[in-house]
Amino acid sequence: MSVAWAIFKKELRIYFVSPLAYVFLGVFLLLSGLFFYLGITMTGEASLRVMLGNLSIAFLFLLPLLTMRHFAEERRSGTLELMMTAPVPLWALLFGKWAATLALCLALLLGTLLFPGILLYYGDPDMGVVLTSYLGLLLVCGAFVSAGMFSSSLTDEPVAAGLLGVIILLPFWVAGSAADMVSADWLRRALRHLSFLTHIEPFSKGVVDTGALAWFALFTFGFLFLTWRSVESRRWR
Amino acid sequence: MISAQSLTKRFGSLTAVDAVSFEVGTGGVLGFIGPNGAGKTTTMRMLTGFLPASGGKAVVAGHDVFDEPMQVRRKVGYLPETPPLYRELSIGDYLRFVAEIRGIAARDRARRVGEVMEQVGLSGWERRIVGSLSKGYRQRVGLAQAIMHDPPVLILDEPTSGLDPAQVAGMRDFVRELANDRTVILSTHILSEVELLCPRVVMIAGGKKVADGTLDEVRHRATGGVRYRVELKGEPPDAIAPAVGALPQVDQVKPVPRPPGDGPHDPWDQGFRVLDVRAADDPRTAIARLATEQGWTLRGMERRVPGLEEAFLAIIGAEQ
Hints:
The structure holds 2 protein chains of 2 kinds.
Chain A: H1 2-17, H2 20-43, H3 49-67, H4 69-77, H5 79-85, H6 90-111, H7 114-122, H8 127-154, H9 158-179, H10 185-194, H11 196-204, H12 210-234
Helix pairs in contact in A: 1-6, 2-3, 3-8, 3-9, 4-8, 4-9, 6-8, 6-12, 8-9, 8-11, 8-12, 9-10, 11-12
Chain B: E1 2-11, E2 14-24, E3 28-33, H1 40-48, E4 55-60, E5 63-64, H2 69-75, E6 76-79, H3 91-101, H4 106-119, H5 135-147, E7 153-157, H6 165-178, E8 183-188, H7 191-197, E9 200-205, E10 208-214, H8 215-223, E11 227-233, H9 240-245, E12 252-255, H10 266-269, E13 273-278, H11 284-294, E14 297-304, H12 308-319
Parallel strand pairs in B: 3-8, 3-9, 6-7, 7-8
Antiparallel strand pairs in B: 1-2, 1-4, 4-5, 9-10, 11-13, 11-14, 12-13
């Protein structure tokens, strides 16, 4: 566990000593502000529904940029060799990296607390809904970070890993729109179930749905498992 | 301390390391030599457990690399060919991280990092960013990383590549000092390095072990030991080589032909015969006496201890 903690701290340090985290924070807050403004003016509701829904899609494109270096860069710079010859269990390496990026996401989300603050000042938002919405967004982050790590484990090229991450995640977004276009009932239901938007829907309404929780847990651990297999198997080649 | 038994590594249809076996006892430096692409790095990676072997086994510090990887990792310090560094971190942050994953207790960490930095000559460099360092300093940080947990086994892959001569000498002294109380395996293709540092060498070429022994043994076997180069002039010229060969001290005589080309080739142009004499006991007095008896002109006799370079080329040449 202490090794995972060491990895966690190291990863966070690398984020914050490079410009990446700050650029990311800037871009993210800019987008949030835009979505917040659009949400308020379009619906006239004192809610974060539009902002949070759009942010989850923004995460789909932006998070692979945060995860792309995890294995691609470590392999390229040879530091993976250090990790694999020091007494670091693979699970600790995976978990430390995953948790570090998730912590960065949490920091980004904390930055957007400004917007519910504004709502609270001028209106009367349902804070329970705000809370579950943020929980939903954090679950989305956990899932996407895990998928991004998997894409990073597949190649030595960080940029390729980033693009691959987006490509892996895209189906989980477009499946929802595709569902509306198919006529077969079973297929429509299956596609809907595949889309992460379906599963954050309850959270944005203030409901903590156990089915949705299970979906995100499955997604996250599924990709962490694939990452584990992928890192392990690449040593053999 | 280290035992490799028929270690084999295949990458698809390519056999990078082919049934390499060797044993290393406790203490001292083993030189692991071979041309580029011979399989040195692959073998070392198998010993550290980074690469699983396709066949054979390796036991390091009493633990099987495949069955007990974590125990082996705790006892081995490893410096890969490119030091495994995080460019973004400062030297201090990097080494504290290494100390932490190496399981050094929090209260001892600062002290140990300080010790190691002093040992490799990095004192006062704690805040420097790793990415801004020169090759020599990166190598030091890499070495600091490898010795952090005071491992009984150190595996260094080309530790002197890319260093300037002063740094090479420094690294050599340092490795020699480390080897006092631990086992060091060092790979290199710079042979002068090995001659100065390693009493024992294992040579591999094309993934196979081609020589294993003390430096003198390998040298001797490859080149037939000490040789003498003799320049003689006399009549009849063709009788010179057989007469020298007939001396009881001499094992073998080979006339060295005049090199081709138009350029001046001194001893030959002056009418001298140049002989390559192989002998177990020094034959020079006997040859001088023979020359006097026969009335030949003796211009020079030179004793030549073959370098590892020659042994290396002879062995590699014989392999191909």
